[in-house]
Amino acid sequence: MTSGFVKTKDGVEIFYKDWxxxxxxxxxxxxxxxxxxxxxxxxxxxxLGHGYRVxxxxxxxxxxxxxxxxxxxxxxxAADASAVFEALDxxxxxxxxxxxxxxxxxxxxxxxxxxxxxxxxxxxxxAVPPLMVKTANNPGGLPLEVFDGFRKALADNxxxxxxxxxxxxxxxxxxxxxxxxxGVIRNWWRQGMMGSxxxxxDGIKAFSETDQTEDLxxxxxxxxxxxxxxxxxxxxxxxxHESIKHLKNGTxxxxxxxxxxxxxTHAEVLNADLLAFxxx
Length: 280
What we know:
42% of the residues lie in helices and 17% in strands. By secondary structure, it is of the alpha/beta class. It has an eight-stranded mixed β-sheet, sandwiched between helices. α4 (144-167) crosses α5 and α4 (144-167) crosses α6. The protein starts with a strand and ends with a helix.
């Protein structure tokens, strides 16, 4: 098992984990906002146990990667990821992205992965594409005021905001009868607070206002779209139900009652479905 850093063309140190046999098929994980590669523990251990090579990065400004002040946008996210995958010379990869990481997967596969011939399949889980914010052309999106509220909460008291999100809507712990896991809440907070407030502030614009319709249209590899219909962070209507319309080779699976953080709350279910797709 190894970990380390790759320096991008603009001099940013990106942290990565690379576990498993180097001759095995790589499964690559892209985390959501404002977390780190640690959010994939359940999936990385699962796929490692099934004989795969598993790789994950911390996005710039997140986790252990450099806390640079700029470049917190989808283009840089994808280019940074590509720098790592080129350095590791990963081929025949399956890229799995959660939330903002799903946007990163879409941009990476469209702009780098497929043109370089490195990608076999892609998975978008509770992912932000094609566009989260409400516009004239995206009437089902969320009002800009929602994201302004995120920015204000982060700037006013990031530590409290990063407790409120996992305690409430992220894992569906605000639903009646929900079994609340204190360790999961603390781990979300730990990951978030490791990162840069500037990266997290700018990242809100990146995940909410980046129109990725053309990225989705450019992807030709088999792509699995997974979403819970009780996702309170990235509502399914303007995300998964729209993304599937633009994918040439897409499959949509909806999980009744599952929350945004379903990879954690329902890891056994999601892991089995991910494995079936990778092997299929």
